[in-house]
# Entry
Amino acid sequence: MASVCPLSYRYGSGEMRNLLSRENLLNKMVYVEKAVMRSLEEAGFAPRGCSEEVEKAGARVAVEDVDRMERETGHDTASLAILLAEHSGICGRYVHLGVTSNDVIDTAWALVLREALDLLLDRLAKVIAKIASLAREYRDLVCIGRTHGQHALPITLGFKFANYVYELARSYERIVEARKRLVRCKISGAVGTMAAWGEKGLIVQRTACRELGLEPHSITTQIAPRDGYAELVANLSILASQLDRLALEIRELARPEIGEVVIAPKMIGSSTMPHKNNPVVAERISGLSRILRGLAVSALENIVTMHERDLSNSSCERLLLPHTLLVADQMLIDTEKVLGSIRINREAIKRNLELLRGVIASECLMVKLVLKSGMPRHEAHRALSLLVRRSLDERRDFLEVFRESDLSSKLDSSDAYECFNYENYLGSYRELIDRALSYAENVLGKR
# Structure
């Protein structure tokens, strides 16, 4: 039967799909059962060598076997435990002893997430590095800054890119911090008290966690606290929104009316219009971000369970975790692809910088009028607003309109001309770019 979900064939990398495959999750669950058996040996509950028997048994159990058994038992983890026990000889009596299902499930997912987050962080680091290189390359290329979709003040293209470096580095930092709380061992029994192991409960937990290379949760109910998953999905949703913002920026700058960015065509843009160069990959980033933001709501809902747990989170998480990771994976792949396909149109940048005939110099003139002539700021603002409207209405250069006005007598001509050399009105852009790049380098170096 053909797959229904596009995530199984269209979105996400082969590496991520393999990590999230049922086969890999089953292998991780067997690995956890083996670690628990090793801890039972250490605590004196099971004979030495039983952990190796569990490992051998796991090699004989396939997903289809678990599915077949589940049709009889109605419980997937119990089915795995039964199959392992049946293939472990005399050691089978100790398989899953004192362990609850979510000891195995939550800890297996911690192992999967450890690898999955490494993959996402590697991809994000490449994206940040690419944008940082663009920030350096175009550090001094003056372009128009826009607020509310309108021309605001001159900035540099490198300054624009550096803002994305900073924002994405903050997401990298959030994911790394969340991983410390999320990727943990949950071995504590039916309600979290380790009662089945008596006074040796902490020995069982400590040994199992050491075998798995994980730190334990300090305390749990029957399940690991779901705020960890919620934090991860929320952080990836923030990342998705940042990537969406970057994709939208590129899409807007690539519009023919603006044309400051050109997306190199590598495929059919339109099925009917040969001239179209649709930014389909950037648009896919924006579309997938909506899925991730929606998943954050489900992750937050899953924090709420009754008493020491109920099962309401389980079915949700079967969809939630794979979809979250695959969508984030595809978005990062697409972002790297988009960044590698763009080129900068310097002529369009220069054209747009002069599009409004110099009226973007009005703030600079206002500041000079206040500081050099003593004119009140609000009066200078009002007077310059009138000149701006005249310049635009009459389609005349703003400098010419300003020189004809009474305001020009309040400034030396050199002061006025200085405002129309936009490189003089970029503030501390160099230091700010350097600060953003240094922040990102520091964050990436801490992983």
